[in-house]
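fyi for ur records
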Amino acid sequence: VTSQAVMVEPTDALTVTQEDQRDNGCQECAIEATAQYIISGKKHLLGLGEHKGAITLPPAAFMMLIETRSL
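which gave:
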């Protein structure tokens, strides 16, 4: 995983969710890194669907995507 990781420091503060303010930091990093996917089991994040280009998926759905698309 670390060989594929991109380290970023967000430049913009976001308020994407009110349920858990710590999750906003994850969203900020994903946007800064231009991530395609955010993997989470948290219902309030899954409800976001796509946000600024990053699609939030549960782990099982992401694994199926990897298997079918060879990501």
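The first strand starts at residue 37 and ends at 39. thats all i got for now
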